[in-house]
Amino acid sequence: MVLLLILLTYTAGCLEDEGDDGNGDDEPKEVLANAGTNVVGVVGEPVTFNASASSGPIVRYTWGISVDAASPNITVLEGVEADHTFVEAGKYLVTLTVVGDKDQNSSITIHTFIDLIKSISGTVSLSERNETYEYTIADNVQAVRLTLTYARGTLLNPYTLDMEVYTDETQPIVTTATQVPDQGDTQVEELDLSVPALLDYGGFRIVVHWTTAPTSEVSFEIDVEIMYSGI
């Protein structure tokens, strides 16, 4: 009888020990989202987002990309690493949400700055004096730089080109006409635009034209840099 009582007491103690931490085994372990630092990219080139620094028993990683906090996601990506190619320059919000094995979750938002860096090739001629290009910009643009490059005219085909920037239909806000010509065979003319002047109009127009008429077609190149990350 004494032996049976001891066995019952020991068995009850063992059962009690299995649950002595209450619901500890059922409590979800914390997950913590970590998307790293802000990302800088270029229009047309893939940008990689990496959540490998996140911690906890994570079973799902979701990336939501939006223009601002009040806007819906323009795309949603999945995975520890996710690639996205932006088609427009600007400043974007990227929110990483991680979900754990018991549906616990954590989110963090980083900024992504997408710059436009583009080279444009064009021509002007005696009959076609102007070439025009238009660009739009968003409120958080940091800098805009334009560079015109062309081969200098010769004695047989003398010419000069100018690049002008407009925000309306009247006068250019800036022009290369006042710049001192480079020496050598190649002319390079650069303009750093005033961002406040552009923001009032939401964009700008580039006009390249000859000031001394060429006797044949003239090729040129414009490097356009619209920077949301700064120059």
Description:
The structure is a single chain. The protein has 231 residues and is mainly beta. The chain folds into 2 domains: 28-115, Immunoglobulins (Immunoglobulin-like); 125-227, Jelly Rolls, CATH 2.60.120.380. Helices cover 10% and strands 48% of the residues. It contains 2 helices and 14 strands. It has helices at residues 2-18, 195-199; strands at residues 39-42, 46-50, 58-66, 75-78, 81-85, 90-100, 105-124, 130-136, 143-151, 160-166, 174-175, 186-192, 203-212, 218-227. The strands form 3 sheets. Strands 1, 3, 4, 6, 7, 9, 12 and 14 form an 8-stranded mixed sheet that branches. A 4-stranded antiparallel sheet has the order 8-13-10-11, with no helix packed on it. Strand 6 (90-100) and strand 7 form a beta hairpin. The radius of gyration is 31 Å and the shape is elongated. The model is unreliable at 1-21 (pLDDT under 50).
